[in-house]
Amino acid sequence: xxxxxxxxxxxxxxxxxxxxxxxxxxxxxxxxxxxxxxxxxxxxxxxxxxxxxxxxxxxxxxxxxxxxxxxxxxxxxxxxxxxxxxxxxxxxxxxxxxxxxxxxxxxxxxxxxxxxxxxxx
Length: 121
Hints:
The protein contains five helices and no strands. By secondary structure, it is mainly α.
């Protein structure tokens, strides 16, 4: 497996671009995945279903970051803290959805290529 290409595919996905070519857009809107890349023809539907585990893990990780942050920044008023943490959690988790989905697509393309090619790429 070429780690430079793997990192490149993941970064391209995080930028919401096609993990293979880096030119075509992954999403038609904010989070609506295109069926395939308009530039290189990579079928996004074929790898989309395997991204759920990554999405769950990263959501749990972001939730953990929010909880750990609460230990260091304890609010004076509980209600104010709850409102701020709730808004921050929604903004962080929902706002990062397309980028995390793009990263997951990049990882899946890398893993799919490595399994198909016998681990050479």
